[in-house]
Amino acid sequence: MSVWLRRRILWAGSGLGLAVLLGRRAGAAAVEQSVKLPAGAHWVVRSQQASVFYGIRFDESQVRLGVIVQNGPAQTAKKLPELLRSAGAIAGCNGGYFNGRDFGVYGLQVSDGVAQGEVGEVSELEAALVMRDGKLNIERGPEFPKQGRVTQRVQCSPLLVWEGHPAFEGGPDEVALRRSFVATDEKGQWVMGCGTNLTLSGLAKSLAGGQVFTDLSIRTAMNLDGGPSSGAWSRDPQGNEHEFRAATVVQNLLALFEKETN
To answer: What residues does each domain of the chain span?
Structure first.
């Protein structure tokens, strides 16, 4: 592990875990850390060239995903780890776009069945993470489904991967920044999290090409709010916390909870 990467992991507060470098095919990411979380989830840290990825892998059949929102001025907003701890979450990351001045909602946002905002006019690159009739999906604009009961929803853009192929090509003016994302194999396996030093088109190619999360054949992925908003957190069964620290507070975030047993 390079000194640079070690410092990045320590700065992100990733805590104790298994840190090993594995042999891999050209272009694939190195697994730097894998930590077991409750409900079969994992906190994983992987490096690829100049980027480091902090991901939360989960099976949707074993967890419950919720959208946590905080409405009000940024001056009184809580930081991401504090919100997740107080909600009793096992892990989470930042969600979709929002107005940084007044914490206004971007698009249609739903948290535990309570809706705010509206879909608005959207393009084919618009996307939404939606819990519809108990099933978690990434839906593509402009024709978002209107049927079914929606209990959780965040809207953002661009769509990164569709039907297993990169959906965003980018351009010559792309900038490499901190990015956040959520992705699925459409068979119930998911990853959400953050990455450093990434363009959107580069992120799309890495996710679609299976170069980062090699154990997940990603079919669909969408971008989440990035830059200073990018942040992820988890807590393992031993109480150790693992964090990629957001540089600012956020209006909404995605949280994972253990499913309640009857």
So the answer is: 3-258
Residue 187: closest CA among 67, 42, 61, 54: 61
Structure tokens given for 34: 């894998």
Whole-model pTM: value is: 0.88
**Please, are residues 250 and 80 in contact by the beta-carbon 8 Å criterion?**
yes
Taking only the tens place, the pLDDT of each residue in 119-134 is 988 899 999 999 999 9
Place of tokens 């054949």: 217
SS3 224: strand
By C-alpha distance, which of 137, 133, 127 is closest to 147? Answer: 133
Choose among 93, 102, 125: nearest CA to 252: 93
Distance, CA of 134 to chain centre: 19
Other CB atoms within 10 A of residue 50 CB: 10
- The three-state secondary structure class of 201 is helix
φ, ψ (nearest 5 deg) of residue 9: -65, -45
Residues 6+ apart with CB under 8 A from 172: none
> Which residues are paired to 239 by β-bridges?
none
Residues in contact with 20: Cβ distance below 8 Å, sequence separation at least 6, in sequence order: 31, 32
pLDDT for residue 139 is more than 80: yes
Pairing relationship of beta strands 127-132 and 30-36 according to DSSP bridges? unpaired
Rounded-to-integer distance, Cα 4 and Cα 145, Å: 45
